[in-house]
Design goal:
Shape: elongated
Largest sheet: 8 strands, parallel
Helix content: 40-55%
Number of helices: 30
Structural class: alpha/beta
Strand order of the largest sheet: 5-6-7-8-9-10-11-12
Strand content: 5-15%
Length: 736
């Protein structure tokens, strides 16, 4: 028989004969501790084998004569074992509770390869993954980042870290022999949480021995507190803090997983451990006076009936005042927590960093391309996860898990903090945030998991600008989930250059329906994506009036889908298909369906390699259209004859204006600034040689028209426009 006894430190075993009598009969009823002691003495079932697990601090509780061998389980000493673990763990699609259907084995292999490469060059992460449980945390985080596609996401990042702590510390007491019986996680939150918080506030991640001594208040400890600290140092310290491997910082400590510093700092603040000395004394004094006042009140009531002393009721009321006054002060703590959250969430110096999800991804998988040494500290540490973890910890699910770990956050406290946050967080969010910071704010609302609060916060967001944010499936799910708490119309949603694909559009479909202006430029959206956009525009609840698809490889097939959408849509007034590889055939397909549309006012078909035939065909259809009055056709392959034919169009006669070039006879076109602004914005993405040729032709046209006019005012306008074109040509020639 093999006995496996897990967690010796939870048992208070007494090996003295006076404390535990000998017992060799398995049928004799004795306390459980006596059974264990006699098994270890080899007095009961002497032929049985026994394996005992224990924390280091409790090893000596069993006399050495009863132990055959000691073994310390350290972790993955071989990096090949780490890689094997990652390979097996990341190849299981449902291991993190997410349905990762659609993720190919190639994506998983790529993840493992990137992770392995980063482990080889990043010693600090390799040191963290020495512990198997941290390997679990890394893999679960990667599953969350890469394979989340449900709306709403079934997990939160805070939930992953809270579950990680439950996995390691559920039911653990720091020292079972200590009368305080403090849970291990509560002790960690009070001590390591304080160190983490002070590090976040001072923007540092490396801590010296002096920092540790000061944080743990070693000089102010009683003997029992020092014993607890000794147990903590031997059992838990190395789990959270590890020696730094950066050159020149060998004698300092860093958090084993960087994000754990921000999580513990957030837990420290939300638990209300961040108190001044006066607040701590006040709380203890309030509790003492509160208990004493109940007993004294009974005595005073009896005495006041016997002796007519007027001061007794006054004394009785004074005893009640202090606890009431302190409870009001504790209510101020909730405001302070909400203020800290808002202040950290909207720090202006962090406005132009990557969003937090990209930061986590980079910390695990590294950064591609040239970079500083991976173990070299950045110039300025960023702690943008700290306020997000604060919100996540307040969610009902995480509070329930923390309650099991001995870290209690009352429902009333969470309610009061959320109430205080409405004054600070929502007000600050209305100022207009940069795209990456707005993504962080949306992720904060997702982590907070408070639907009513989120709905109130989102209702005030009429414009959502996420341009240049890499919209992974997870970010799309977060955006769809958070925006889904309300049903209000969004004035503008800017998703320019966001790496969107077909699956992203499907996740965001309910949100896109409610957007009046929708910017989808520079997203590599091909014909498959146009099929989804067609379904969007034909939906009866679609309110999109301005759709920009510039610089996407729409092609002829995509044009077919968009043409079908135009025929049946009733909301669209402005459509930009600038530089979408339509060609003559794509433009003709769109022109054929324009007759069935009754609402479009402006159509941009610039830079699509259109020839005279296609351009004139589009304009002929536009003449007969009830509302279409502006067609953009610049930067196309239109001949001089074609340009003259388009130039002869008159708004009052033909009902449509074609924007082809910057001149209008011997005057500058009213739309010259519109055309040049479009070119200026798109210079980095267009074929430079072709743009240079077009600009050269435009410059010749401007100079020719200027020579033909005798009006000095018009000459000045021509010179101004010519200078703008020359500037662009200069930038192209110098590669800027």
């Amino acid at each position: 028989v093999l006995f496996i006894l897990n967690g010796l430190e939870r048992l208070n075993l007494d090996f003295r004969l006076a404390g535990t009598e000998l017992c060799c009969d398995p049928n004799e009823p004795v306390p459980p501790s006596a059974i264990v002691v006699n098994l270890l003495r080899k007095y009961l079932l002497p032929e049985a084998s026994i394996i005992i697990t224990t924390r280091p601090s409790a090893v000596r509780r069993i006399p050495g004569k009863y132990v055959g061998r000691y073994a310390e389980i350290c972790g993955f000493s071989d990096t090949n074992l780490q890689k094997l673990y990652f390979q097996m763990r990341l190849s299981q699609p449902g291991c993190s509770g997410e349905d990762s259907v659609g993720s190919s084995s190639g994506d998983q292999e790529n993840l493992v390869e990137m992770l392995s490469r980063n482990l080889e060059r990043h010693n600090q992460i390799a040191a963290a993954c020495f512990l198997p449980s941290y390997c679990w945390l890394v893999c679960t985080t990667l599953h969350f980042l890469y394979f989340t596609r449900t709306v709403p996401p079934s997990q939160t990042l805070t939930g992953i870290y809270t579950s990680f702590l439950r996995l390691n510390f559920s039911g653990e007491v720091l020292d079972s022999t200590d009368p305080t019986n403090i849970s291990m996680m509560k002790y960690v939150a009070k001590t390591v949480g304080k160190l983490a918080y002070e590090g976040v506030m001072s923007r540092k991640t490396c801590f010296s021995e002096d920092d540790l001594q000061q944080c743990f208040e070693v000089e102010m400890k009683t003997e029992s507190e020092l014993n607890l600290l000794e147990v903590f140092r031997s059992d838990v310290f190395r789990f959270f803090l590890t020696p730094c491997v950066q050159p020149g910082k060998e004698h300092t400590f860093v958090f084993t997983i960087p994000a754990m510093q921000e999580y513990l700092a957030a837990l420290y603040v939300v638990l209300g451990e961040k108190k001044t000395l006066a607040q701590r004394v006040g709380k203890e004094l309030s509790e003492v006076i509160g208990k004493v006042s109940e007993d004294v009140a009974v005595v005073l009531n009896i005495i006041s009936k016997v002796l007519p002393l007027r001061f007794l009721p006054v004394l009785f009321n004074l005893l009640k005042i202090f606890p009431r006054y302190f409870s009001r002060l504790s209510g101020k703590d909730r405001d302070a927590i909400a203020h800290t959250m808002a202040e950290e969430l909207f720090k202006e110096e962090d406005y132009y960093n990557d969003d937090v999800l990209d930061q986590i991804n980079s910390s695990i998988l590294g950064v591609e391309g040239p970079m500083r040494h991976p173990d070299e500290a950045p110039d300025d540490e960023v702690f943008e996860l700290f306020p997000i973890f604060m919100g996540g910890i307040l969610s009902r699910r995480n509070r329930a898990i923390l309650e099991q770990l001995g870290c209690s956050i009352k429902n009333l406290a969470a309610f009061e903090i959320a109430k205080a946050m409405k004054k600070t967080v929502i007000r600050n969010s209305r100022k207009g945030l940069p795209p990456s910071e707005l993504m962080d704010y949306l992720f904060f609302l997702h982590e907070f998991q408070n639907e009513r609060f989120t709905a109130e916060a989102i209702r005030s967001l009429r414009t959502v600008n996420l341009s240049s944010v890499k919209m992974t499936p997870l970010k799309c799910s977060v955006l769809a989930s958070v925006m889904g708490t309300t049903c209000h119309e969004v004035e503008e949603l800017n998703l320019t250059s966001c790496n969107l694909d077909t699956s992203s559009l499907r996740i965001l479909f309910p949100v896109l329906l409610r957007c009046k202006a929708l910017h989808l430029q520079l997203n590599s959206l091909g014909s498959d994506a146009c099929k989804d956009i067609r379904d969007l525009l034909l939906h009866d609840k679609c309110v999109v009036s301005n759709l920009r698809l510039a610089n996407n490889p729409v092609g002829e097939q995509g044009a077919q889908y968009l043409a079908e959408a135009l025929a049946g849509n009733r909301s669209l007034t402005h459509l930009s298909l600038l530089h979408t590889a339509l060609g003559d055939q794509g433009a003709k397909v769109i022109a054929q369906h324009l007759a069935k549309n009754q609402h479009l006012q402006e159509l941009n078909l610039g830079y699509n390699s259109l020839t005279d035939t296609a351009a004139l065909h589009v304009v002929e259809v536009a003449k007969k259209h009830a509302t279409l009055d502006k067609v953009h056709l610049y930067f196309n392959d239109i001949s001089e004859d074609g340009k003259q034919a388009l130039h002869s169009l008159r708004m009052d006669r033909d009902g449509v204006r074609a924007l082809v070039f910057l001149t209008a006879g011997t005057d500058v076109s009213d739309y010259w600034s519109n055309i040049l602004n479009v070119v200026q914005r798109n210079l980095p993405f267009w074929d430079r040689e072709r743009v240079r040729q077009h600009l050269a032709l435009i410059l010749q046209d401007l100079e020719s028209s200027r020579r033909q006019t005798a009006n000095p005012w018009r000459k000045a306008k021509f010179l101004r426009v010519e200078s703008e074109v020359k500037k662009m040509l200069g930038k192209l020639q110098h590669g800027t």
